Amino acid sequence: NCGATYFPRINPAVIMLVTDPDGRCLLARNAAWPGRRVSILAGFVEPGESAEQAVVREVLEETGITVAVEQVEYLASQPWPMPHSLMLGFRAHAAEGQEIRVDGEEIAEARWYSRDDLAARVASGDLKLPPPVSIAHRIIEAWNGSDLRGAW
Question: What is the C-alpha end-to-end distance of the chain, expressed in Å?
Answer without folding.
Answer: 45
